[in-house]
Amino acid sequence: MDESLISYHDVDVTLPSQIFNVAFSYTTKETLDFIDTMVLRLLIIAPLSALKIAKFLDLSNYETEVLLTSLLHRQQIQQLEDGNFSLTTKLQKAFTDVCAIPYVSKIEESMQKLSFEMLGFNPSATNQNTNDNGANSIKLVASQENLSSGEALVYKEFQKNFRTYCRQGLIKLNLEAAEEEKNVQLYKLTQVEKLRDHSRRMTLNLTLDGNSLPKEVDEFSHLEKSEVLDSTLYDTLKELKKGDNIEVILDLLSELDGNDELGLHSVFSDNKLHLDHLLSLKNESSDYFIGPIYSEENADLFFEKILSSSNQKGEQNPLYWLAPSDNFWGKSDRFGDLIDRLSTNAATKNFKCFLPAAYRDDRQSINYYKQIISTQAGANNFYLVNESYLKYQGGLEIIVKKDSFCALIIHARDPRNSFLTTVPIGVFISDKTLIQSFYNIFKEIESDEENFYGLLNKRK
Q: Which three-class secondary structure string do you get for the chain?
């Protein structure tokens, strides 16, 4: 992959959205049948009696009566007091001259489902993704006024932007081959009915440029009204990132046995990230990576490493995993994909993930984790532990298997605003002493009944 396209994180955001049934009618321009056109062309010259119309067109009295009755019913002609027939005012406007092809308005009714996100009221077509409940994502929040007044606000937006929605293909029109979309006009908006809430998911394009610095995020630039979305996104990410932790990381690295062998100090010098140094290490060795362990590329590398280091006897040993205290951890659909792969692979299915919590019945942490961890996984593989008891707290993530495998992932918070999220920086460790040191930490935690709180789903 070209360095300019390297992702520094894998984060999904979801927009609060609602699905509506929209009932409306619209007008189109259509051409008339040949015989109707001939009658109307006669009448544009001058009003005529039924007898003269029949004579000009060589029609029988019955054919003439049926034809005139139809045109009267469609309000395209009118009968004058002297008995003659003439064009209605509406039909007179349909002709540019006597030789022109007349177009008349036709009213069509329609009922369609549309999804509107409730921050900027940008619409989208409904699809399979409208069942998304927002799990494993950063949830942007709309005002209560917008959420409670969705029907009235969408009514106004639909009226104002009908032509735009047609042009974008969001509204499907029943047009004949000869009819042009530009001639369509909204006739009447009958009803806007909210059906349900849902979340619209987007993966942030968090990538580095050729200088190993973050590129600007423009996820909403394709939307008509992106300003409020951009503002809400940046404010939300800034609040979740909360300052920097580079000094804390350097202190943690200094406490590690064999930390010099990791070669990561240059990545964190001068209290900021030097990702060009990390990418140089990454280019020299597959032991280094950037981004979360569950990103597609890193997950493939993770399984390649752990499977090559495991043997049949070692498959029974549990894989221990310490989650970091990081607001961006697990906020991606790919997190669930990794859990599925771990659960179905013989070498990793016995994994145990430890989740830091302030105390045994820490409701805030419990509810938070249950939003990103499935019920099945929470019942079998995820455990709560006392975060103050952990030797390595904060932005450190550790995945280790006895005698064979270890991955250390540092979730760094650079003070510069251009980094919208934390930056996971990972290294696979092959030093047996360091692997054993990390493994012992997990065994100590697991044997401490006071600080090991048990399975996530056992906590109500």
A: CCHHHCECCCCEEEEEEEEEEEEEEEEEEEECCHHHHHHHHHHHHCCECHHHHHHHHCCCHHHHHHHHHHHHHCCCEEECCCCCEEECHHHHCCCCCCCCCCEEEEEEEEEEEEEEECCCCCEEECCHHHHCCCCCCEECCCCHHHHHCHHHHHHHHHHHHHHHHHHCCCCCCCCCCCCCHHHCEEEEEEEEEEEEEEEEEEECCCEECCCCCECCCCCCCCCCCCHHHHHHHHHHHHHHHCCCCHHHHHHHHHHCCCHHHHCCHHHHHHHCCCHHHHHHHHHHCCCEEECCCCCHHHHHHHHHHHHHHCCCHHHHCCEEEECCCCCCCCCCHHHHHHHHHHHHCCCCCCCEEEEEECCCCCHHHHHHHHCCCCHHHHHHCEEEEEHHHCCCCCCEEEEEECCCEEEEEEEECCCCCCCCCCEEEEEECCCHHHHHHHHHHHHHHHHCCCCEEEEHHHCC
How far is the CA of 213 from the CAs of 6, 10, 387, in angstroms?
10, 16, 32
Instruction: Decide: 217 and 47 in contact? Cβ < 8 Å.
Output: no
CA–CA–CA angle 79, 83, 87 (5° rounding)? 30
Quote the crossing angle between the two packed helices 50-57 and 34-45, to the nearest 10°: 120
Q: For residue 426, give the nearest of 318, 279, 240 by alpha carbon.
A: 279
- Chain segment 121-150, per-residue pLDDT in tens: 999 988 755 678 888 999 999 999 999 999
Angular region, 330: left φ>0, alpha ψ -120 to 50, beta rest: left
What digits encode the pLDDT tens for the residues 272-299?
899 999 999 999 999 999 999 999 999 9
**What would the mean pLDDT of 187-214 be, rounded to a whole number?**
92
How far, in Å, CA of 436 to CA of 127, rounded? 49
- How far is the C-alpha of 150 from the C-alpha of 433, rounded, in Å? 60
How far, in Å, CA of 124 to CA of 202, rounded? 13
326 within 8 A of 422, measured Cβ to Cβ: yes
Rounded-to-10 torsion of CA 223, 224, 225, 230? 30
Q: Which residue has better confidence, 385 or 99?
A: 385
Domains, the chain, with CATH or none: 3-25+107-238 (no CATH), 33-101 (1.10.10.10), 242-458 (3.30.870)
Q: How far apart are CA 386 and CA 445, in angstroms?
A: 9
Among the listed residues 440, 406, 403, 441, the one whose alpha carbon sits nearest the alpha carbon of residue 426: 406
Residue 54 tokens read as: 């029949």
Q: Is the pTM of this model over 0.85?
A: no
